[in-house]
């Protein structure tokens, strides 16, 4: 306990001002809920500016203060392009990697993540997320229809710029869940991607079909996230470690990598079944890419 005290104190010093600022922002966003009824465009724009300041700050802690070096490969992303974003999900640090790309693309404040609906009832924090236009879902399609229509309406009718981000596996990767995914894929004659869980396709299909009507949404971005800790693949620091530990990519021995693939929306198939197969194939390819990266890192 005493050995970890300096790091914990360091983390508290770094994070405390950000937490206080986040609390103030949540209050402001909650108050904007009333204004949203009369001026939705103004509230969305204001929430984007607030979100940018919050996420830029915590990104600064992770990369600049704690020395996390994020490496990037794959396609080049256009600046300020609205898109549907899908990614695998390993750990809390996934948010930093995606935000690093959003920052470079001028879309950090416009990131909107699918969040659990239970957060809506958390005073200020949940209200703030709702005011920002975050999709608050149960992952039950019949229950989520109304909420998704609210979010899609802002993008399609009001043409709000946005990265609409989802972790298509719907949960974090663990060895136990991976074994469960293998069993499910065998039972249902589906291909099991390497190093990944089989993706849930319904949310992706619904999102793509709805956002085809938004002329400013141009593409689907497929992000593949990878980590390594010394010689262990798919191992990343936990949330508190990302905030308290210095020299993450140096003496701590962590690697953080994100691979980009950009697919024009107009090139995607049009039927629900074909879209589901399309996402499935992307996950197979992601698994192959991860396996090749694992081999490359092991040889270094």
In words, what does this structure look like?
With 300 residues, the protein is an alpha/beta fold. The chain contains nine helices and nine strands. The strands form two sheets. Strands 1, 2, 3, 6, 7, 8 and 9 form a seven-stranded mixed sheet that branches. Strands 4-5 form a two-stranded parallel ribbon. Helix 4 (125-132) links the parallel strand 4 and strand 5. The mean pLDDT is 91.
Question: What topology does this entry show?
Answer:
Blueprint lengths: L4 H32 L3 H26 L4 E5 L7 E6 L6 H11 L6 E3 L1 E2 L8 H8 L3 E2 L3 H16 L6 E5 L7 H13 L14 H10 L5 E13 L2 E2 L5 H6 L9 E11 L7 H27 L2
Please name the defining characteristics of this protein:
300 residues, alpha/beta, Glycerol-3-phosphate (1)-acyltransferase, two-stranded parallel ribbon
Brief write-up:
With 300 residues, the protein is of the alpha/beta class.
Number of strands: 9
What would you call the shape?
Answer: globular
User: What's the helix-strand series?
Assistant: HHEEHEEHEHEHHEEHEH
Strand content: 15-25%
Distance between the termini: 34 Å
Level-2 CATH architecture? 3-Layer(aba) Sandwich
Number of helices: 9
Q: What is the structural class?
A: alpha/beta
Largest sheet: 7 strands, mixed
């Amino acid at each position: 306990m005493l050995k970890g005290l300096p790091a914990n104190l360091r983390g508290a010093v770094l994070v405390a001002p950000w937490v206080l600022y986040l609390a103030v922002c949540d209050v402001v966003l909650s108050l904007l809920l009333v204004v949203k009824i009369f001026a939705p465009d103004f509230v969305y724009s204001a929430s984007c500016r607030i979100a940018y300041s919050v996420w830029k700050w915590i990104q600064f802690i992770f990369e600049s203060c704690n020395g996390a070096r994020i490496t990037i490969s794959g396609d080049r992303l256009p600046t300020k392009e609205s898109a549907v974003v899908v990614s695998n999900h390993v750990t809390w640090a996934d948010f930093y990697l995606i935000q690093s790309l959003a920052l470079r693309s001028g879309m950090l404040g416009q990131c909107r993540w699918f969040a659990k609906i239970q957060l809506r009832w958390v005073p200020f924090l949940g209200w703030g997320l709702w005011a920002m236009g975050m999709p608050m879902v149960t992952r039950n399609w019949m229950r989520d229809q109304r909420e998704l229509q609210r979010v899609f309406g802002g993008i399609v009718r009001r043409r709000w710029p946005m990265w609409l981000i989802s972790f298509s596996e719907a949960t974090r990767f663990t060895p136990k869940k991976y074994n469960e995914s293998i069993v499910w894929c065998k039972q249902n004659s589906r291909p099991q991607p390497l190093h990944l869980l089989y993706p849930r396709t319904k949310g992706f299909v619904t999102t793509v079909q709805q956002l085809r009507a938004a002329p400013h949404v141009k593409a689907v971005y497929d992000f593949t996230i990878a980590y390594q800790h010394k010689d262990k693949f798919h191992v990343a620091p936990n949330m508190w470690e990302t905030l308290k530990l210095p020299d993450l990519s140096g003496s701590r021995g962590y690697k953080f990598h994100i691979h980009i693939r950009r697919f024009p929306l107009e090139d995607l198939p049009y039927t629900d079944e074909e879209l589901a197969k399309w996402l499935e194939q992307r996950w197979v390819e992601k698994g192959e890419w991860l396996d090749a990266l694992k081999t490359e890192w092991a040889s270094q």
